[in-house]
């Protein structure tokens, strides 16, 4: 086994530095600063900073057009969007969800006083496995909260069929799924609601932000009220809402970001293709395939480090880190392994063998539009040389 001795900064075969900075697993895509200044001047001129100002309204319209949806409600982050989606549909009791996600998925349930019921994932897509859902349904089950993991669509038809049979609501955690389309259009149109994240690490960011895709104007109105303390007008409050409004500065950045999103997605696609071509044939390394989406967003690049690879997943993770390359064990540990969930019967690893195995093998490699191809090639050489 050939051990590559590479210290920060990352060094190429010819001895030249690949980068004088650490290579992170992701990096926010930002437009030219000088193009943002005119938007800020408009905000300074209007002196409207929040509460659904002109930038906010423009971004909602622009996103509906870009994403191919009818109604969208903007939020100051994706977690509050998910919290409010559950409130808007008055979800209670038990909700079936995945243990293989960021903790916000299950935390949103706990914050609403809802019991998460974890179901195992599909071994090919790492999304909630529809074949496992039905057995987890009880008289207390009111909804299903699947995640389009890594931006790959869930089996939406199978999930909807189960929901219809048992009169359950479906709220998609679509934090990874901006711009993803299936054969019928936006993946966000499925379910009762879909919640998006525009966090700095996402393919489309507004520094911080989020949104709920709404099926009709009536639902959007209720959600808009819930995110503004439940206010209907100056003297009328109809629900115990929260402050989830997106600011004008965040909305302005989103408007500018839309000018560059297709370019950013194309660059991600090129990096994804290069990883796949160069990783092919490395024993013990497997790439996840897509889930049949017509348009992917290449939000993440996960690999699985199997037993045939000379190093364990954690050893490879630390080796890359020592070389100035920051990958991420995403998602590890499982949500069900955290202390606030361990007491749930559905959290036992014996019920979640596929998710438990994935959490021990997965490693997300760096991918973002500004990532230089020479760095991608260097990362592959490092992995191949072990």
Poorly predicted parts: 1-9, 13-17
**CATH topology heading of the largest domain:** Aspartate Aminotransferase, domain 2
CATH class of the largest domain: Alpha Beta
- Structural shape: globular
- At the fourth level of CATH, the homologous superfamily of the largest domain is Type I PLP-dependent aspartate aminotransferase-like (Major domain)
Could you say how many structural domains there are in total?
Answer: 2
Indicate the CATH architecture of the largest domain.
Answer: 3-Layer(aba) Sandwich
What is the straight-line distance between the termini? 6 Å
Question: Mean pLDDT score, rounded?
Answer: 95
Largest sheet: 7 strands, mixed
Order of strands across the biggest sheet?
1-9-8-5-4-2-3
Helix content: 25-40%
Give helix and strand order, one letter per element, not per position: HHEHEHEHEHEEEEEHEEHHEEHHEH
How large is the share of residues in beta strands?
Answer: 5-15%
CA-atom Rg in angstroms: 22 Å
Instruction: Characterize the quaternary organization of these chains.
Output: single chain
Q: Kindly name the structural category.
A: alpha/beta
Number of helices: 12
Number of E strands = 14
């Amino acid at each position: 086994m050939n051990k590559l001795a590479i210290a920060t900064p990352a060094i190429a075969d010819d001895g030249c530095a690949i980068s004088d900075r650490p290579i992170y697993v992701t990096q926010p895509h930002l437009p030219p600063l000088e193009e943002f200044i005119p938007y800020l001047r408009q905000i300074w001129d209007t002196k409207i900073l929040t509460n659904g100002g002109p930038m906010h309204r423009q971004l909602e319209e622009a996103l509906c057009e870009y994403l191919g949806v009818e109604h969208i409600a903007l939020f100051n982050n994706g977690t509050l969007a998910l919290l409010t989606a559950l409130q808007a549909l008055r979800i209670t009791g038990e909700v079936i969800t995945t243990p293989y996600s960021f903790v916000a998925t299950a935390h949103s349930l706990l914050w609403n006083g809802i019991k998460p019921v974890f179901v195992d994932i599909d071994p090919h897509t790492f999304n909630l496995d529809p074949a496992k859902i039905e057995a987890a349904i009880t008289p207390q089950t009111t909804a299903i909260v699947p995640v389009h993991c890594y931006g790959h669509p869930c089996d939406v038809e199978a999930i909807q069929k189960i929901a219809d049979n048992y009169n359950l609501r479906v709220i998609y955690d679509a934090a990874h799924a901006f711009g993803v389309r299936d054969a019928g259009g936006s993946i966000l149109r499925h379910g009762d609601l879909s919640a998006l994240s525009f966090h700095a690490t996402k393919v489309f960011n507004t520094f911080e932000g989020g949104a709920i895709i709404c099926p009709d104007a009536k639902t959007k109105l209720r959600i808009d009220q819930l995110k503004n303390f439940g206010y209907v007008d100056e003297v009328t409050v109809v629900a115990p809402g929260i402050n989830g409004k997106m600011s004008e500065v965040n909305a302005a950045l989103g408007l500018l970001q839309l000018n560059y999103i297709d370019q950013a997605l194309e660059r991600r696609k090129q990096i994804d293709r290069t990883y796949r071509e160069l990783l092919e044939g490395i024993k013990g390394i497997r790439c996840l395939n897509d889930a049949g989406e017509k348009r992917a967003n290449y939000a993440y690049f996960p690999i699985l480090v199997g037993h045939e690879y000379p190093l364990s997943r954690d050893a490879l993770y630390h080796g890359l880190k020592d070389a100035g390359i920051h990958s991420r064990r995403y998602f590890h540990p499982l949500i069900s392994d955290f202390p606030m969930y361990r007491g749930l019967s559905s959290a036992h690893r014996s019920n979640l063998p596929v998710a438990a195995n994935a959490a021990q093998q997965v490693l997300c490699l760096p991918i973002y539009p500004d990532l230089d191809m020479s760095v991608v090639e260097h990362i592959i050489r490092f992995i191949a040389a072990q």
